[in-house]
Amino acid sequence: MDIIANLKSTELAGGVVSSCIVVLLMVILSIYIGIRAHFQDPLKRPKGLLLVAEVGVNFFENMAEGLLGKNYRKFGAYLMAVGVYMFIAFIFGLTGLPSPITYMAIPLSLGLSTFILIHGTAIKYNKFRYFKRYIEPVPLFLPVNLISMWAPLLSLTLRIFGNALSGFVIMSILYSALEGLSASVFAALEPMIGSWNQVFLAPLVTWILHLYFDLWSGFIQTTVFLSLTTIYVGQEIPEDLLG
Amino acid sequence: MTDAGMKFLAIAITMLAVMPSAIGEGWVVSHSVDGIARNPENYSKLRTTMILGCSLVETTAIYALLVAILLLFVAR
After folding, report:
1. Residue A18: which domain range?
2. Does A50 reside within a domain?
3. Helix, strand, or coil here: A86?
């Protein structure tokens, strides 16, 4: 009871709550697919959700193999986790709840996880030589290198955030404009249905733009984020390990 | 000229950054169309690379839009 009372008293931002919903959805789906895959006869053809999951795993593993080589096929797991979360978060705005990506914290945490992965990979393969990159070519460059270290994080974060936010703002402007237009076109209906005369025009126009700003833009931004992640990580792995 | 007017002028100047980005995107598309015309069998590969390049070029414009939106909230 204490936890529920605490949850009610804290004010979470709407995007954080919908992010939790997305994560919950993904966890339930993963557990269900995991159980199905465990009891599946490997000689039989997979059906339904299991088939979709298999195609997805194959797609992300091929993506990792295409950019990093055969040895890093397992890197597809990270790509799939981030990619599926990001795509669902992008199209979550279609449900009418606040979209997680339009809150700065969510893209920042996605960017931060990639950032940590990049530097973790660098430390894993270079050991102490990792710190040498900050004093190259001469120790005088230390401040410049320390600042440029954050460039990938900023560019990864702001790219997704800006894309989602611009779509969100344009859609809100369009919705409010169509509301006013509908109210003035159907002004004759006002005595009968009151302010409900605002709702007629928006559903005719906005679905096409939702297709572009939510589905298409979400898909493209997810692909770009995953490619950039793979390329950044691939830069840190020594050449001879890449197949 | 009022203070708010200057702020909206600043937003307009910020959005000028979209122009070179659009030109760059046009170059990306024109060159990939050249490539597709030369060897049409590479169409699917070139298309993927083109869309990726387009959205990378677009980033600059998105930064400008982000700054413009932030300025808009300040100018209100």
Report:
1. 13-241
2. yes
3. helix
